[in-house]
Amino acid sequence: MKKAIAPIVFAALWIVFSEFIRNQVLFQDLWVEHYNSMGLTFPTAPINGVVWMIWSLLFAAVIYVISSKFSTRQTILLSWTVGFLMVWLVIGNLGVLPYKLLIFAVPLSLLEVCVATLLITKFRKYK
User: Pseudo-torsion of CA 71, 63, 76, 49, nearest 10°?
Assistant: First the structure.
């Protein structure tokens, strides 16, 4: 368990950074516009950031576990499916997903998972 901490923490930091850049810097206007069109306010309170940090830590832990059983390519595909595809299906079903975001979000989220997987793989070898 102790040797899992560093890989998970480094991957989680990358995921938090990646999510922040994508959703709060690059595409915040798109999210805000979409939520406004539904008569809603895009959630940006500090508690929302805390929840995303927890999600990032849990997602990194999931990637760690998956990577111990599968190849790098399989880990990326399984992790991306669990972390993103399933979430997008749910929020799309709820009507709160701006579909035009997906043209950018799909490749950026794949990059996010690839880097997180590589960080976990590399840090696992050094511990």
Answer: -170
- Whole-angstrom Cα distance, residue 8 to residue 116? 9
126 pLDDT band (50/70/90 cuts)? low
Query: What confidence tens digit (pLDDT) does each residue in 58-105 have?
Result: 999 999 999 999 999 999 999 999 999 999 999 999 999 999 999 999
Tokens of 27: 């595409």
- Domain hosting 12: range is 2-126
pLDDT of residue 125: 72
Residue 7's nearest CA partner among 50, 55, 67, 49 is 67
Q: Which long-range contacts (CB under 8 A, 24 or more apart) does 100-105 make?
A: 100/30, 101/27, 101/30, 101/31, 101/34, 104/22, 104/26, 104/27, 105/22, 105/27
